[in-house]
Design goal:
By secondary structure, this protein is mainly α. It contains 14 helices and two strands; from the N terminus they run H-H-E-E-H-H-H-H-H-H-H-H-H-H-H-H.
Length: 290
Amino acid sequence: MDKWKDNKAWFLVLPVFLLVAFSAIIPLMTVVNYSLQDIFGPGQRVFVGLEWFEQVLSDTRLHDALWRQLLFSGLVLLIEMPLGILIALMMPKKGLAASISLVLIALPLLIPWNVIGTIWIIFTRPDIGLFGAAINGMGIVFDHTSSPIQAWITLMFMEVWHWTPLVVLLAYAGLRAIPEAYFQAAKIDGASTWATFWYIQLPKMRGVLTIALLLRFMDSFLIYAEPFVLTGGGPGNTTTFLSIYLVKVAVGQFDLGPAAAFSLVYFLIILLFCWMFYQVLQNVGKGEKS
């Protein structure tokens, strides 16, 4: 009976949970319905079973987009996670300086995704953009619309600038939650800065870093607005990620069946990688505790 009383707080969250589930399940069921049928028009459809899934899984363009997406997400995580931790370690711990630092760090997160692409288009223009003018002033011809390497560099800079603050804020929160007694004990034992970070700060931040890793992977794997505005998937298909390819199939070609099957495969890929990341991080934590 006492256990039931303690769990009554869940009833306060239940309306929100039902609302979110309702708004998510109906679109999902619609996508599942489209993925199993060939739609010719209003009221004209034929059940095709798993035909669209077979077509999507054998599509070489999908395979290329998947490898580009994995490369992009992997590079983003390799840069943002260490950089975010480093910045969080360098930030002031308390006082007005800490408050100002947190506000300044969080500013890029407040900018809408489609505006980010527009900002970086202007920023990299050789005639009026600070970055583009500076690079071209050094004698380097910079044009991300014609060079695949420069398009990738611009996208990486843009993504790191936009989302590293999220890692910083989570890492900073994890650092501030560590009791001061741990640092006092480390100081008494004569532990170096690196030893303090490796054996105290990093293990204590594992929870928030797990959240940061999962959030950043999912968001980078679902990225659409920024590369679409900045490069449009080009030059050629060099920055055509899974999301951009999905939109081309659904909106450009209006192939609703293959697009629905593709979106479900896309969803399962994200779930699979997130589950793998979570399991690896959990096993690392258990190994260190034992």
